[in-house]
Design goal:
The chain is mainly α. The chain is 82% helix and 0% strand.
């Protein structure tokens, strides 16, 4: 087995689970909050310098671009699971092979998805019933965003590989620089050069370029010992297949969720431009709050993967209990926050005094917040199962969410209007959490430490120690 005495990153197989989880999560929370604040700032600049229609046009493209982003990010997160398991095993050779395979697959997947998305952008927006007065602006904006997807993919690949090694700080630093640059370019491009939402799109692509290359360059300089060598790019069929299947399961999960969001968006678009603007503002605010609980789930992917690779099932159980306690306490705080501040935040984000927009956006935020006690455990359990290599329960939970959104567009939205939209995701959270709880209990009963010959039930064979590679 390769020597890892000089190992960098955070070893999450040792020390207090609470301390490891919190220390690892804080930089990611900050990064995600900065990202969400950028999203708010981006739409704020558009609403301030342009008008409500431009604001709504940016909002209607979000679910489309997010589907592509989440699919690519899902693949790279899946690749990172196997790297984290190899890190827990203290196997440098396997880490290098995983990094090489991840880079090859990310390149191919991103190229295919970007070309397809660019060619079908208008058709998708028409299919979503984007209002005619918003269609041209939305199409121009999203085509430019798609041009920047290779930079997004490079950042996600690098960031997820670094996190699998226990380093959540470098992605944060790069993201902070990118967000600051993005906001400056937003003001310059939208307010003074382009005077259109195309300026916001160009600002986003430029900042993504800086973010991705800065993260990649720093990561390769800092973690040279984990960089693949020429022989590591030789494809080992079993490992390459397992990388693809693990990435695909994560990518499909994110894609299925966003396909559901696209279907739900079509129902929202049919409610008119004012409701679309309300949803854009409400979603921006809710996303920031969701980040606080979602990030602990992402932490559990790395925490569980490393400990599963090391055969520490006891630490997995204690870590999951710790994370569940944290997200539950955080959910109570977020409920209180939404009750008090949803309305003034909507007024600021949307730059409007239109009561139809304000009332509906605030309602959306408050309804969602009341269901955060179900959302936090959903993220923790789903990511923990993924960290152990379980694909079935997380994927079925995403399919369940898709079914709920389809049913909502067909039955709830026509009857309840935008209130039906506000209830849709919270209802799916409750059902998904129940399913994942059952899946987690079953997984824990089946799991045994790796050194005893155990596996994760339906987890990948690559989580097991391979003596011939030692």
């Amino acid at each position: 087995m390769a020597d890892m005495n000089e190992k960098k990153g955070m070893d999450m197989t040792q020390g207090s689970p609470f301390q490891r989880i919190v220390v690892f999560t804080i930089p990611m929370i900050l990064g995600n909050i900065f990202q969400q604040l950028y999203n708010v700032g981006d739409t704020k600049v558009v609403s301030y310098f342009l008008n409500e229609h431009a604001f709504a046009a940016v909002g209607t493209t979000a679910v489309v671009s997010n589907t592509l982003v989440f699919l690519i990010n899902g693949f790279t997160q899946g690749f990172g699971i196997l790297t984290a398991a190899a890190f827990g095993m203290k196997d440098i050779k396997r880490i290098r092979r995983n990094v090489a395979g991840s880079a090859l697959q990310t390149t191919c997947i991103t190229a295919l998805l970007t070309i397809f998305a660019f060619l079908t952008a208008r058709s998708v927006l028409v299919l979503l019933q984007t209002p005619d007065e918003l269609l041209m602006q939305a199409e121009s904006y999203i085509r430019i965003i798609f041009m920047g997807m290779p930079f997004t993919a490079l950042y996600n690949l690098t960031a997820n590989q670094l996190r699998s090694l226990g380093d959540s700080k470098v992605p944060l630093y790069c993201l902070m620089v990118s967000i600051g640059l993005n906001l400056l370019l937003d003001i310059l491009f939208v307010g003074y050069l382009f005077h259109s939402i195309e300026g916001a799109a160009y600002a986003t692509v430029a900042s993504q370029c800086v973010c991705s290359f800065s993260c990649f360059i720093y990561g390769t300089m800092r973690y040279r010992e984990y960089l693949p060598e020429k022989e590591d790019f030789h494809i080992v069929a079993s490992e390459f297949r397992e990388l693809f299947l693990t990435g695909l399961s994560m990518g499909l999960m994110g894609c299925i969720v966003n396909i559901g969001s696209i279907i739900l968006q079509s129902g929202i678009n049919g409610l008119g431009a004012d409701i679309l603007a309300a949803h854009t503002a409400g979603r921006r605010i809710l996303d920031i709050q969701m980040t606080l609980v979602y990030t602990f789930g992402i932490t559990m992917t790395t925490y569980v993967s490393q400990n599963f690779g090391a055969g520490r099932i006891d630490r997995i159980k204690s870590g999951v209990r710790t994370a569940l306690g944290i997200v539950t306490a955080m959910s109570v705080f977020l409920i209180c926050f939404s009750m008090l501040f949803a309305r003034p935040l909507v007024m600021w984000v949307a730059s409007t005094k239109n009561n139809l927009i304000i009332d509906n956006a605030a309602m959306y935020c408050r309804v969602g917040a009341w269901f955060f006690p179900a959302l936090g455990p959903l993220f923790v359990l789903r990511c923990s199962l993924q960290g152990m290599g379980h694909k079935a329960a997380p994927l079925f939970s995403s399919i369940l969410e898709l079914c709920v959104k389809i049913a909502s567009v067909a039955f709830m939205v026509p009857v309840l209007g935008y209130f039906g939209v506000a209830l849709t995701e919270p209802f799916s959270w409750v059902l998904m959490t129940a399913l994942l709880t059952i899946g987690y209990v079953i997984a824990m009963r089946k799991s045994r430490p790796v050194e005893e010959g155990g596996s994760s039930g339906d987890g990948p064979d690559l989580f097991r120690k391979d003596k011939k590679n030692d």
